[in-house]
Amino acid sequence: xxxxxxxxxxxxxxxxxxxxxxxxxxxxxxxxxxxxxxxxxxxxxxxxxxxxxxxxxxxxxxxxxxxxxxxxxxxxxxxxxxxxxxxxxxxxxxxxxxxxxxxxxxxxxxxxxxxxxxxxxxxxxxxxxxxxxxxxxxxxxxxxxxxxxxxxxxxxxxxxxxxxxxxxxxxxxxxxxxxxxxxxxxxxxxxxxxxxxxxxxxxxxxxxxxxxxxxxxxxxxxxxxxxxxxxxxxxxxxxxxxxxxxxxxxxxxxxxxxxxxxxxxxxxxxxxxxxxxxxxxxxxxxxxxxxxxxxxxxxxxxxxxxxxxxxxxxxxxxxxxxxxxxxxxxxxxxxxxxxxxxxxxxxxxxxxxxx
Length: 355
What we know:
Blueprint: H1 2-15, E1 23-24, H2 36-49, H3 51-61, E2 66-71, H4 76-83, H5 87-90, E3 95-101, H6 104-109, E4 117-119, E5 124-125, E6 132-134, H7 136-145, E7 151-153, H8 155-160, H9 165-174, E8 179-185, H10 190-210, E9 219-224, E10 229-230, H11 243-260, E11 263-264, H12 267-279, H13 289-305, E12 309-318, H14 319-322, E13 343-353
Parallel strand pairs: 1-5, 2-9, 3-8, 3-9, 4-7, 6-8
Antiparallel strand pairs: 2-13, 4-8, 5-6, 10-13, 11-12, 12-13
Helix pairs in contact: 2-4, 7-10, 10-13
């Protein structure tokens, strides 16, 4: 009889959603660290390789209220050096709003939705040390208040997308209790990007004020993108396939980062970024995520403090120039080659309030 009652209770709790936490599983267990020992090794190697640059950045940013950053999402052995110029600052907050890309795989699975942001419905995301919890209260506030024409919820989309997952090992290394609020950004024209960003920023400001939150301490923002993808595999050989071509490609990335995404940020600068990258078909995988995320952050700061944000171009590199961190025999690897015929660029740009 006790067995029957116990079985009934298990079924009852299962149907009421108490038996199982919805956990978003790992997509890429090759390129990304999934265990503490792996991310600790990557960070140790990256710190040693970037010692002088990290010290220079730390000295420049000392005392500045950092509230957002652009970061790469490529394999940790490739881009680990560049992650370190953005993630330690952003991870200090209790909740990180992460703007992710909608790559080809989820686009195809969802029949290429346009002019939307995509929220998830998970409770936690699998990550090193412990699962990363979702700020469900904040997410529910957005779900209740966003215009249904501007967003939808899809665990399927988030389960196929790696651009947010890439950040978790670093965030958890620096803050074991960090929560995230994942937002995927789909293809958008600038008019819709502007409209949805305005609506989202107003809701973020409302939530921050109602809950008496402090930017940088309670809330920070992370914008995920790799920059130029160059070579025949990506359909871009505009400069050729030699050292001169690589130089031109990386100079193009540096120009874009310093011209449109650094210094005092304005809507006009971000529109100019879109005109440059979209019209010239420059393959930044976050070509919609970047202007959307930076514009949203700038509006939040303008509304709360009547200030602008300033972008500091902390570190640029690419997979061909630096190659891989020698994190051998720890259970991770690389998911693509690196050569003059196949390379990817990375930017870390940190944003702080104008004063």
